[in-house]
Amino acid sequence: MDAITTVLVAMLGGALRVSTPFLFVSLGECLTERAGRINLGNEGVMVFGAMIAYATSYETGSPWLGVLVAAGCGMLIGGLHGLVCGMRGVNDVAMGIAIMLAGTGLAFFFGKPYVQPSAPLLPNIPLGGWADSPQLQNALAVSPLFFLGLAGAFAMAWMFRATRMGLRIRIVGESEDAARALGLPVERMRFLATAAGSGLAGIGGAFLSLCYPASWNEGLSSGQGLMAVALVVFARWNPVHCITAALLFGAAGALGPSLQTIGITWGYYLFYAAPYAVTLAILVATVQPGRTLKGMPGELSIGR
Amino acid sequence: MTTRHDLSRRSLLQGVALTAPALALGVTGPARAATTTIGFIYVGPKDDYGYNQAHAEAAAVLKKMKDIRLVEEEKVAETADVERTMESMIRLDGASLIFPTSFGYFDPYMLRMAAKYPKVQFRHCGGLWTKDKHPMNTGSYFGYIGMGQYLNGVVAAHATKTKKLGFVAAKPIPQVLVNINSFAMGARSVDPSITVQVIFTGEWSMPVKEAEATNSLAGQGVDVVTCHVDGPKVVIETAERRGMFTCGYHADQSRLAPKGYLTGAEWNWIKVYSDFAEGMKAGKAPGNFVRGGLSDGFVKMSAYGPAVPAAAKARAEAVKAEIMKGGFAAFTGPLKDNKGTTVLPAGKALPETAVELESTNWLVEGVIGAIA
């Protein structure tokens, strides 16, 4: 296998392996933001989800139960955020940061006993049986959660476009006045959207501890939850574009290590910055001056 | 505005009555010196299967010693935070000996505290203590773990089929480079056709990147991997899942890889800590510049895993016996780095104690990778 193929296969594998947490958290954030609220707490939700999923899997022997519990806990934490933000005069961003710190802190506190043991993990689906090269086979061993994320993205896009519920969420996110005029329960819908969004972020966390890198420790997250907020902007609040954004981010992240294995060893710090550089470049290239961000929900504001 | 100070005889008596026990406690203070309070500060969690666990395990043994009281704090950032931690250990817990175990604690934080509390002893892990530059109540200790990685390399060379070994490294600082070089020298002492592929992750602890690096190595046909990151758990587990052999680092990781774990280079800090603590009890300050390797008991090897062939064990044991005698030099001239430049002329040898190694800035021939 020549050098370029190696890097491409590694990037494909990296995209499939690394992208899933970005996908889930950005989908969750997308849902919440389309309803007109920002949730920076999803980083904390994700770390807590990772911990509780690992702990549940270890205690019960069932990784899928771990995923469920992570989603449930995510909804609880997100619900708290939704509830508090629904009160008059509460700032989304400040509350989000509080939730983020509380989530990570709680996860570290309760997660202490689970750093050492090895929990049962979610098995991958081997899709590379047809390939000759073991590299390709390995790159194509994809986690079922990845497909769940894909399905979730398309389902959410369909929901926004074609269902009554999707329309109502969009109205709540676009114009609170219009929503109230229609008699929609604005606060309740935002509360539900925030809770559901954090539930998805919790699943993203479960992926980190049960699929890849598949281990619980306190340095597990490297800010995926916060990056997801940027990815949603990048994806223009479109769930299907969240897939592209997450895949791109995953692939760019795999660039650094794989280039080093084929002998391109200079400047690895630069390659490690590739995902961020790519995001920045695309944002700059697609934003036109003198216009607000296309697709941004009207009610979304950090000043509220 | 006036404030009345009525200092009646009654309140004076009350005051005396209240302060008396405190004074008495103060007087009994020196008697308390029978127990020595020792402070341990870790940069990460105590159970990271790595650097911090190696220290914490030794601290746990130390705790059981007579007349020793231990105060510990984990996850202390290499910022002004560590100064506050040291200060509270000294003032609130009465610590007389402090071990700030992480590299970044030394300068300026520990030095600042040492100037402020000249009666407290500070011993730092890994810092380069210099006699005229640094105060006498500070010092540093470290182990020469490079020979452990050399032995890892010897065993790895017997286990590999593809003749490609891998090394997941955090940052290209001298200690890490010495480990990579030693691992490569050990392996190539068995079979000079072996190469060591190194991947730098750029961070001491970054699980996703460590897993990616291990996977990339597997994709390249590397079949034995070792590492130098703060917590080797992710590297060892990922390698085990990919069916690779692993050599451990920092602490014993055999539980994480029951099939593929060959052996590992571990710290044995209890040797250093118990020496220091015994000295303190006898009223003697610990040494200011303490170094030691396998033969001094500062470093030990993990037990051989089930996959290690008999030939590898025999060879490794023979080399180990040689190292235990003292004066063993893994780096002997003529030696080239991986760019072809001669780093060690013929006739010159660097034993593990050589000061030159503490400023290593090259990768030895046979290592694939670059520092910048």
TrEMBL record, chain A:
TM stretches of this protein: 6-28, 40-58, 64-86, 93-111, 139-160, 191-210, 242-260, 266-287
Main location class: membrane
Signal peptide region: none
Membrane topology field: Multi-pass membrane protein
Record key words, sorted: Cell membrane, Membrane, Transmembrane, Transmembrane helix
Gene Ontology CC, one term: plasma membrane
GO MF entries: transmembrane transporter activity
InterPro entries named among the record's database cross-references: ABC_transp_permease
Name assigned to this protein: ABC transporter permease
Organism classification: Bacteria, Pseudomonadati, Pseudomonadota, Alphaproteobacteria, Acetobacterales
Automatic annotation (TrEMBL), chain B:
Protein source organism: Dankookia rubra
PANTHER family associated with the record: ABC TRANSPORTER SUBSTRATE-BINDING PROTEIN
Signal peptide as annotated in the record: 1-33
The protein's name in its UniProt record: BMP family ABC transporter substrate-binding protein
Every ABC transporter substrate-binding protein PnrA-like domain range: 36-302
Xref: InterPro entries: ABC-Purine-Binding, PnrA-like, TAT_signal
Keyword list, A-Z: Signal
Domain of life of the organism encoding this protein: Bacteria
Cellular component aspect of the GO annotation: plasma membrane
